[in-house]
Amino acid sequence: MSERNLDFDKIIDRHNTRSLKYDFAKRRGMPEDVLPLWVADMDFETSSYIQNALKERINHGIFGYSEVETPYFEIVCNWLKIRHNWIPEEKWLVKTPGVVFALAMAVKAYTQPNDGILIQQPVYYPFSEVIEDNGRKVVSNDLYLGKDNRYHIDFGDFERKIVENNVKLFLLCSPHNPVGRVWTVEELRKIGDICLKYGVIVVSDEIHQDFVFQGKHTVFASLGEKYEQNCIVCTSPSKTFNLASMLISNIFIPNTQLRRKFRKQVDSAGISQLSVLGLVATETAYSKGGKWYMAMMAYIRRNLEFVRNFVENNLRGVNMIETEGTYLVWLDFRDTGLSVDELDEIIIHKAKLWLDSGKIFGKCGEGFQRINIACPQSILKDALERIKNALIG
Predict the structure, then answer these.
(1) Vertex 286: Cα angle to 280 and 287 (nearest 5)
(2) DSSP code per residue over 327-346
(3) Which residue in 65, 360, 374, 375 has a CA-CA distance of 20 to 30 Å to 302?
(4) Rounded distance, CA 154 to CA 144, Å?
(5) What pLDDT shows up at residue 328?
(6) What order do you get walking across the sheet with 116-119 strand by strand?
(7) Would the CATH topology of 20-47+290-392 be identical to that of 63-288?
(8) Spans of the chain, pLDDT less than 50
(9) What does the buried/exposed string (b/e) look like for 362-386 if buried means 16 or more CB atoms within 10 Å of the residue's CB?
């Protein structure tokens, strides 16, 4: 048997499939006829090996409480070893129904109400939500855009924000969504050292770790034992293999005390066994999905180059921020002279596109738009042409 699902130009109609991306525009306040390139799932069929494994499990017909043993961990570990040169221990693993759920559990486990929690805006908006929804305070070490067209960390401000707000927890986005940075070893060590200095626990969201186009992803815990013992590493096959609705993530917590506190919060939330289909999909993805993954990455790389060329040649006043990782492109519209509201109006009602407005990633995201490029290139071309025509008109 060979991989069948390698035609990434194939357009698959996702309407009427309970798709959050395609079927909920009106409910989310958008025109029903918008073209959606917002939420971070892909418009590609997942690996045929995963499809086959799920069909086989479904044919069994019984879906009782399910769990996995050591072979599951070995499969996940092997992926991390081969792709990221990191070998975790089995006892470190805590499975959760998602990375955002894990972030919320970490907030509850390691901080108290009204505590300040550090993030780096513009950043994935659930970071702020899990902090505020749990009665904590958002503290942002805003990233800044350098002359190299990449975002950077203001380390002085990073340390000041920790001291001034008595921060005890830092939510790291690595690779960073939406600005596309793949943090270097030096950058990670520097923030790791500051966090160690002030007793700040690092929760590293590495869900996009398999999407790197420049540089190399470094698992935060791989920096060394002192960093390993002060962090939580959040991973999942959901982005890599388009499995978001399978609701499974693999969270690694090397420090026994931190792991115990985290597990207590997970238990208190009533989570025990996860979906058997998620477990099957994860095992199959990491053991048999390599060919699909490599082909998908090559296709997204071509899409990335396509967007870069189109923006440079067709979208006056728009700058594509250099994308080192993720399949989410951060577009800077500030030189168009449009206000935040005018830009949203043009994108939504004139271009008929559903993107993620930069303002939801923090105030420093205003004037930007995030676009998901994990789709057939014909759809991407249509979207960019719509932006071009809307700006001209």
Answers:
(1) 85
(2) SEEEEE-GGGT--HHHHHHI
(3) 360
(4) 7
(5) 98
(6) 93-96, 249-252, 231-235, 201-205, 169-173, 116-119, 137-140
(7) no
(8) none
(9) bebbbbbbbbbbbbbbebbeebbeb
Where does 38-132 show beta strands of DSSP type E? 93-96, 116-119
89-132 pLDDT tens trace:
999 999 999 999 999 999 999 999 999 999 999 999 999 999 99
DSSP state of 25: T
Q: Are 275 and 187 in contact (CB under 8 A)?
A: no
φ, ψ of residue 270 to 5 degrees: the values are 85, 20
**pLDDT score recorded for residue 72:** 98
Does the 63-288 domain belong in CATH 3.40.640.10?
Answer: yes
In angstroms, the CA 237 to CA 245 distance is 11
* Three-class SS of 219-253: CHHHHCHHHHCCEEEEECCCCCCCCHHHCCEEEEC
What are the structural domain ranges in the chain?
20-47+290-392, 63-288
pLDDT, the chain, mean: 97
Q: How far is CA 193 from CA 11, 68, 181, 252, in A?
A: 47, 36, 20, 20
131: its two tokens: 């902090």
Strand partners, 325: 212
Other CB atoms within 10 A of residue 227 CB: 22
220-247 pLDDT tens trace: 999 999 999 999 999 999 999 999 999 9
- Pairwise CA distance, residues 358 & 340, whole Å: 9
The whole-number pLDDT of residue 393 equals 73
